[in-house]
Amino acid sequence: MQNKTTVTQIFPHDYLATVGHPTRRGDSLTLLSLFQEVTGWSPAMWGPSIVGFGAYYYRYKTGHDGTFLATGFAPRASNLSIYIMPGYQNYSHILQNLGKHKLGKSCLYINKLADVDLDVLKTLIRTGVEDLNKIWTVYPSLADLDKQRDL
Fold it and tell me: Distance between CA atoms of 37 and 80, rounded to whole angstroms?
């Protein structure tokens, strides 16, 4: 079964320019810079609305496999969804200092960046990528992952 969320040819800056709410658009541009700073990677659009950084290949014991973004974010109508992989790690020691947020399985929901400490968010992103890389090898981009798989 193919993942529904795959890399598209949309440029992240072009997509973020379409975000209607001015605060959400400004926060998204800040997140774009913050993720680039933390990861050192260029962004790519995953599906129509997720700005992703890095990629990894996974294969579960069930045989299900695929590729997915290593980390990223999506500006949604009601909040900013921040994808911190892997979602089953306990980051409470970092999150207790983040500020106002809600948690999903592998998402962090923030209403606006003014509600959180950006240095703590950087630590969370970095830790999430490092932890993911301990489980599945993380590459700077899907193209880098594909090159490695072709070797």
Answer: 18
Closest by CA to 50, choosing from 89, 24, 80, is 80
Rg of the chain taking only CA atoms, in angstroms: 15
pTM: 0.93
Which residue in the block uniquely carries the two structure tokens 């409470």?
92
Measuring CA to CA, how many Å separate 127 from each of 21, 56, 123, 132?
A: 30, 16, 6, 8
pLDDT at 51 over 80: yes
SS3 assignment, position 108:
strand
Instruction: Give the Cα separation of 101 and 94 in Å (integer).
Output: 12
Q: Could you give the angle at the alpha carbon of 132 between the alpha carbons of 49 and 111, nearest 5°?
A: 40
Contact yes or no for 19/48 (Cβ under 8 A): no
Q: Structural domains in the chain?
A: 12-150 (3.90.1150.200)
For 141, the token pair is 């981009």
